[in-house]
Amino acid sequence: MSVAPRAGDGKVTVPGILARKSASSSQPKSKITCLTAYDFPTARLLDQAGVDILLVGDSVGMVVLGYDSTLPVTFEEILHHTRAARRGARRALLVADMPYGSFHVTIEESVRNAVRLIKEGGAEAVKIEGGERRLELIARLVEAEIPVMGHVGLTPQSIHALGGFHVQGKTADAARQLERDARAVESAGAFAVVLESVPSELAARITDKLRIPTIGIGAGSHCDGQVLVLHDLLGLTQGHKPKFARQYADLSGEISRAVTSYCEDVRSGNFPSDAESFRSTNELRDYLRAPALVKQRT
Ligand code: KIV
């Protein structure tokens, strides 16, 4: 069973995110912060640090489950991680990614899956990759009271069709299509849209044209908000790192150092110390001092 988010306390809501689009002199626009979170302790830490949106992204497949792409991630895996993140998220808006295959067969099945993420996972919204071709699906989800975050530009679930992780919208035709995609997502009723790997000027133009907030990742600084994969930010991913993934910490190094020290201490007898061990009671001490019982013959 999921834990319901507490009302009040500055709880981030879907209308609240939409309202962040429009600035006024009394309420200056503040950028929306979004990070991925896949489990209870990190969701709790990010929530306490004031992150606005926690995304249970299908990137979990690559940075936690060890898959080569996001394609193998199953619906049940996303549901499992959404439940865990739900227990840690209080103030932040919790958004669950619809993984590849969970919204590609029929609209009915897709709505049923999204309902499970809300009902069983405790998500407050779902994210769907794709633009124009998701128009009908997004509209049906919104009709079923499920807030939707769109995702256009580089959509990792389309990796085979796109032919690799390339910046999108670089030609005039591609830019026009990307604008159509973003507008379609908005007109279908999405409350926000992720723009991934898009030239900054194009992302700025889309941001200016839309009435819903844009959340950029590799899309320049003009977007209404930014999202990163937490493991990239913390320095927990190995191998290729996208150029937009600014690293704020070196947790891989920290973990290696801590684990190496632990192994050295165990091997040298330096761990555990007396202070880290439990003392005997008088009764136990007497028992341990008494001669051991002679083993009975049968
Ligand atoms: O799965 C994910 O983490 C994402 C973000 C990178 C937007 O889709």
Structure description:
39% of the residues lie in helices and 13% in strands. The protein has 298 residues and is α/β, with parallel strands linked by helices. The protein has two domains: 14-250, Phosphoenolpyruvate-binding domains (TIM Barrel, Alpha-Beta Barrel); 254-289, no CATH class. Strands 1-2-3-4-5-6-7-8 form an eight-stranded parallel beta barrel, surrounded by six helices. The longest helix has 18 residues, at 251-268. The radius of gyration is 24 Å and the shape is elongated. 3-methyl-2-oxobutanoic acid is lined by residues 36, 55, 57-59, 97, 151, 194, 217, 227, 229.
Identify the notable features of this structure and list them briefly.
binds 3-methyl-2-oxobutanoic acid; 8-stranded parallel β-barrel; 12 helices; TIM Barrel
What's this model, at a glance?
It contains twelve helices and eight strands. It is α/β, with parallel strands linked by helices and 298 residues long. An eight-stranded parallel barrel has the order 1-2-3-4-5-6-7-8, surrounded by six helices.
